[in-house]
Amino acid sequence: MKQLLWYGLMGLLFACNQNKMPEEKLAQMQAQLLTAGGKIAQQELTDRWWSEYQKQGIPVVHDSTALFLYKGSAQTVQLAGDMTSWQPGRKFQRLGETDLHALQAHFPDSARFDYQLLVDGAGTLDPVNPKQIMTELGPRSELRMPRYKPLPWLDGMPQAPRGQIEEFTIYSRTLANQRPIRIYLPPGYAQSQVVYPSLYVNDGLEYLDLAKLNLTLDYLIDAGEIRPVVAICVPPLKDKRNEEYGNNAKFAEFICRELVPRIQKRYRIIDNADHRGIMGAGLGGFAAFHIALQNPEVFRLVAGQSSHFGYNNGWLFSLLPKVDLTLFSFYLSCGTYETNIANTGNSFIDMHYRMRDQLRTGRARFGYREVAAGHSWGFWRDDLPRLLKYLLPAERIVQTLD
């Protein structure tokens, strides 16, 4: 009897691997386990099953199906992550009387998500998934669906020539505070006489540490896919991010009247708004848009990833009709799973549809991208090549110092 049940379970495993495992298969597995006899016999079967899945890799993914498994003593196991807006998701099924819990879910086959397991309400990394990503809140497990393609230069490809990163501290009279600024200088900067375009990056330290902005710039520049650029990475002050990145006139003045002139004086940068960009993610993306829209003489290249366009009751949308949008080149992107940010009911994807439509009405030049992702640095990291290639398309740089 045990041998027959063993073959039956192996058949189920094979069927799952071939993506022929509909939702009811878990119920069928439950039924087969119940016919196995007592608790010991059931545990023996699921231990073998667990061993086989560990060899394949957990979660098990095929086409649009992901099978999550957890083995251990627990009353409840749930999934929380980008796909659930980080709210407790569906409960895993406990298989028979064993310590094996399973959840089958369906996602687009190109999706990538950060996630964790909630084991009796406590968040934990998926203990059998070696794929992890670092976030501002620490490491998270990573689900990669079959058609997801990681950036090769971050996943084992030989490194391109490295740019140089400098750091200095700037004191702002306008804000009466100071902060560190990190500057990315492209490979060959010191040996050349080229005058470069510039890109100001809100949450700049996180873009370097979590999104690996410098490595992506290195690769795209070396591959000839973008113009070499000087990137100015600007962090918000600790505990003042919301204050600074909201529609804050003083912070905008600091960027445009204090930081930009200092950077222009210190580095070889084209002094022209058509070659100067500003970007950010979330509220940092909102800040990039409102600073540029109110200062078109300073910035005309603008990019936002998962931007909080609904901030302050959608104030930014009231600004758009007052601005000549044809002056700018915009890039905006959002994840299709950004529908309930921070459990507030705010749908960032809906706000991006609205922004896209208003930019189109204003005859603005813009690039728009949405992907199967959530509100995360993993998404923004993967989206950087598209953003950079849109704002800084490869072309010959002819401006040099006299």
Protein model, in words:
- The chain is α/β, with parallel strands linked by helices.
- The chain has 2 domains: 2-148, Immunoglobulin-like; 153-391, 3-Layer(aba) Sandwich (Rossmann fold).
- Helix content is 33%, strand content 25%.
- It is built from 11 helices and 17 strands.
- The chain has helices at 2-17, 24-34, 39-56, 204-209, 213-222, 241-245, 249-266, 283-294, 311-319, 348-361, 377-391; strands at 60-62, 65-71, 77-81, 93-94, 100-106, 112-119, 122-124, 132-135, 138-144, 164-172, 177-185, 198-202, 230-234, 276-281, 301-305, 329-335, 365-371.
- The strands form 3 sheets. Strands 10-11-13-12-14-15-16-17 form an 8-stranded mixed sheet, sandwiched between helices. Strands 3, 6, 7, 8 and 9 form a 5-stranded antiparallel sheet that branches.
- Strand 4 (93-94) and strand 5 (100-106) form a beta hairpin.
- The radius of gyration is 25 Å and the shape is elongated.
- 40% of the residues are buried.
- Residues 1-22 and 396-402 have low confidence and may be disordered.
